[in-house]
Amino acid sequence: MSYCILLVDDSSVVRHMVRKAIEMSGLDVGRIVEAANGNEALQAMEESWIDVVVADINMPVMTGAEMVEQMVARDFMATTPVIIVSSEKSAKRIEELKRLGVKAYLNKPFRPEQIKQVIGEVLRERKEAVHA
Amino acid sequence: MLELPSAERLTEIVAGILADATFMFVESAETKDWQGTELLCARLAMEHGERVELMLRAEPALGPTLAANLLGTEVDSEEARASAGAALGELANMVAGALAVEVFGHEAICHIGIPEVAVESTLDSIAALAATTCKTIVLTEEGHHLAVMLCAGAGA
């Protein structure tokens, strides 16, 4: 089964970088959907099944943290794992995001193999949870 | 008043991010006379009680090089030219993430703004910074210059 990944970042450069890293990763990814902020991401999740969300924190309209809060409040999105990819390094910020339900946190700049590893682990957990 | 990182530390941070993110290896340069030159500028603010503003000012030719290295494409491609501003904005975002913990500490949840990118004249930028305390460094990569300014204070 191929996975569907949603990339959420207001920077087209970052979306391109993450997309390229995923495409080169060898992960079984069927479709990559893009959104420029949390609000667009919620709309994309309402329209189609998403296996994992890879999102930035600081975005206009709706931030990554606000998006995660909205997802938790909506039953069918509550279990969709979110990976935050951000330049923010504050230990407290990372702790706060994990408390909100974020599965993993990756600092920018990242190496393509780090994206592969993090998404691979989250997808594996997701698959085990769905089959449990 | 917040204590800004030293010029040496600022250089170390920016050079490290450029090497990791873009495989560009920069070295410190003398202050460059940019009078009358239009520069590609990215600026964003970091706030946690106090406000610090970061500005990156690049010679226009550096933008497509940055974009090409971030995107893994050719420097003379349409994609690299079109993404030059966004690439400098993203570099500012990465630098701000590293500087925020230097300035405010690892325990602070500081607000990092969204980069604003524009082509500006040197004189406009200097006028805007007249009332602030700034640390400025100039870096060069194969003859292309990048100035990094970190400002705190009343005008920041």
Key structural traits:
heterodimer, A: 132 residues, alpha/beta, Rossmann fold, five-stranded parallel sheet, 5 helices, globular, B: 156 residues, alpha+beta, Chemotaxis protein chec, 7 strands, 31% strand
Q: Average pLDDT across residues of chain A?
A: 93
Give the overall shape of chain B. Answer: globular
| Sequence of strands across the biggest β-sheet of chain A | 2-1-3-4-5
> What is the CATH architecture annotation of chain B?
3-Layer(aba) Sandwich
The helicity of chain A comes to 40-55%
Helix and strand sequence of chain B: HEEEHHHEEHEE
Main beta sheet of chain B: strand number and arrangement? 7 strands, antiparallel
Structural class of chain B: alpha+beta
Q: Which structural class matches the secondary elements of chain A?
A: alpha/beta
Quaternary state of this entry equals heterodimer
The fraction of residues in strands of chain B falls at: 25-35%
What count of domains describes the coordinates of chain B?
1
Radius of gyration of chain B: 15 Å
Descriptive notes:
- The complex is a heterodimer of chains A (132) and B (156).
- Chain A contains five helices and five strands.
- Chain A is 48% helix and 20% strand.
- Chain A has one domain: Rossmann fold (3-Layer(aba) Sandwich), CATH 3.40.50.
- The two termini of chain A are 17 Å apart.
- In chain A, strands 2-1-3-4-5 form a five-stranded parallel beta sheet.
- The radius of gyration of chain A is 13 Å and the shape is globular.
- By secondary structure, chain B is of the alpha+beta class.
- Chain B has one domain: Chemotaxis protein chec (3-Layer(aba) Sandwich).
- Chain B is built from five helices and seven strands, in the order αβββαααββαββ.
- The radius of gyration of chain B is 15 Å and the shape is globular.
- The model of chain B has no long low-confidence stretch (mean pLDDT 87).
